[in-house]
Design brief:
alpha/beta, about 15% strand, Glutaredoxin, two-stranded parallel ribbon, seven-stranded mixed sheet, ATP10, Mitochondrial ATPase complex subunit ATP10
């Protein structure tokens, strides 16, 4: 009888596990994007959040707790589901199908009272260790560029470069004259520790390429700082592409886009910058 009871329990456990396994298979079988997501409403985090603030000391957990803690098990499974879905094939094919345009930008910036938050974090810049992102926001409208790959960086570059101008390097001060209350912030998130190691080795070359006025606004952060659920909330979960966010002084996402720029999107971005600069100045009067 005991053998029968154990066997029945084992079968029952497998049946209970089946729905989650089915969900994982379902995620893995989703086809690559065929066209960009259309952004019609604000997106981001529901509240301001510091990403790399430890909510608990994982080192204090014993092996049993690490293996069987319900929340940790759920987190591991969710991460696995994400990695299965976001295979190199899925991401590269989605990038190709959409020409990097994972989502299209809204036609104007979001209202302050409707906008959602960009996450806060602490990371290393080209000149500072443990720089807090939110500390850069108080006096400027920030154009935040996120990328993890060379293709992503090239996408993000197209919003600031053309045949005659490069506002990221030699013409940055000209950009500052036109938008005196705005700044450009880079967040370089290497895909894994090995790529992160090579990026660190290349910091000297990066300093030469980035205008000196932006060295304290160029972050290099490990991928673990931006977990998959945050990337999904920011719609930047395809590592092949690059992303642009206009973030206000409160850390709210007021406008965003992805992929390669076109002339119309550049006009909208610059118009949004002007509008948000005026909004900021009016709020300080």
């Amino acid at each position: 009888m005991n053998h029968i009871g154990l066997r029945a329990f084992s079968q029952s456990a497998r049946l209970k596990a089946a729905p989650r396994f089915t969900k994982t298979l379902s995620e893995a079988s989703k086809p690559p994007l065929q066209k960009p997501h259309v952004i019609l409403r604000p997106f981001g985090l529901e509240e301001a959040k510091l990403l790399n603030k430890k909510s608990f000391d994982i080192a204090s957990l014993n092996v049993r707790e690490l293996l069987f803690d319900k929340e940790l098990k759920e987190a591991r499974q969710a991460q696995l589901d994400y990695e299965i879905k976001h295979s190199p094939f899925y991401e590269s094919k989605s990038f190709t199908n959409t020409n990097g345009k994972i989502f299209t930008p809204p036609v104007s910036y979001f209202r302050n009272d409707k906008a959602k938050y960009f996450p806060d974090f602490v990371g290393n810049t080209l000149v500072n260790r443990n720089q807090q992102f939110s500390s850069l926001l108080s006096e400027h409208i920030s154009i935040v560029r996120i990328y993890s790959t060379i293709s992503g960086e090239k996408c993000a570059d197209t919003y600031f470069k053309n045949a005659t101008k490069n506002y990221l390097t030699k013409d940055y001060m000209e950009f500052q004259e036109e938008f005196p209350h705005s700044q450009i912030v880079d967040i370089n998130i290497p895909q894994n520790w090995l790529k992160g190691f090579f990026v660190k080795l290349s910091q000297g070359n990066i300093r030469k390429l980035v205008h000196s006025a932006r060295h304290d606004k160029y972050f290099i952060v490990p991928t673990r700082v931006f977990p998959f659920d945050v990337k999904e909330a920011l719609l930047c979960d395809n590592a092949c592409s690059g992303y642009i966010y206009i973030v206000d002084r409160e850390g709210k996402i007021r406008w965003a886009t992805s992929g390669y720029a076109n002339d119309e999107e550049i006009k909208i971005m610059r118009k949004c910058l002007k509008g948000l600069e005026n909004e900021m100045l009016q709020s300080t009067e």
